[in-house]
Amino acid sequence: MTALETLRRVAADQSRDRLLSIGIAASAVWLVVVGIFVWLDPDGLPQDMTGWLVGLVGALVPLALIWFGVWSARSLALLRAEADDLRASLHAIRASAAPPVTDQEPRLKPRSASVPRHVATIPAPQADNRQDSLDLGTQRSPELTPTELVRALNFPDGPDDHEAIRCLKLALGDPELARLIRAAQDVVTLLAGQGVYMDDLGIPETDPELWRQFAEGQRGESVSALAVIEDDSALDIAAQMMRMDEVFRDVAQHFLRHFDRLLARRAEIDDPVVLAVLAESRSGRAFVLLAQTCGMLGRPYTLAKD
């Protein structure tokens, strides 16, 4: 754990402690108010059991509301801390990635103005060759934690990325996730063959509530704020491939369907913040790029020459 992460965790703990202190102080103030009221008007105390019960409820309900508010605020603080940890883990994965040597060569070549029709002839990047050589089992596994899911969808950075490999093995134990991951690998590989690299696509933090709405079926302009990719070159290439190449289009649509199902599935068990963090993984970046191209996140992208 870095010094920055330690400071962040200490700050989060102090924030939760302050919420607890506020709850205690508010409760004490309320009890003092009740005591003053009783002391100033002792003759106004109820004389029968019903009156006493009503008075007791009137005194306890504000206390219950105070502590419900404290509990809600602490839960929100915990969720935010978990989201920060997820983002920190994802950034650490990216920072530790060593760029494949073979990836540098196509970057130096000018991008073709047209996209070949048969994308099956595009050579796969070295990163995917490394992944194929990994011994990945397909045993059945329980539901992945948010951190495990993010690491799996971000793909291992090589044979030494043991934690990501472990998470990928867990994900491949789920038939639905296995289909998604293989489709994501195909899409990322084919895009990389045309010079579109997921690590180069800038994905800023997005509104988790919008991702929840998207997972529930909202499309188009209502979630257009999720269309955050501003790389026109990447958008042009993806749009050309979707339009001109039937093989890529079939693979991309298969990937979009499975990622959409994953969001709907995780929205039922996870906080919306998790959905937003998933979109920052390599698979998530590919999803945003293609969804933005197809118009799932607003109007369909229009090629510059159109």
Characterization of the model:
- There is one protein chain.
- With 306 residues, this protein is mainly α.
- The chain has two domains: 3-80; 104-294, no CATH class.
- The chain is 65% helix and 0% strand.
- Helix 2 (49-95) packs parallel to helix 5 (146-154), helix 8 (208-215) crosses helix 11 (272-278) and helix 9 packs across helix 10.
- It is elongated and about 85 Å long.
- The two termini are 50 Å apart.
- Residues 97-140 have low confidence and may be disordered.
- The chain crosses the membrane at residues 20-40, 52-71.
- Residues 122-141 are annotated as: Disordered.
- Keywords: Membrane, Transmembrane, Transmembrane helix.
End-to-end CA span: 50 Å
Give the DSSP E fraction (strand runs of 2 or more residues): under 5%
Shape: elongated
Order of helices and strands: HHHHHHHHHHHH
Structural class of the secondary elements? mainly alpha
Radius of gyration: 26 Å
Per DSSP, the total helix count is 12
Unreliable stretches: 97-140
Compute the average pLDDT: 76
For the largest beta-sheet, the strand count, sense and barrel status come to:
none
Helicity level, as a percent range? 55-70%
Summed up, the domain count is 2
| Beta strands, count | 0
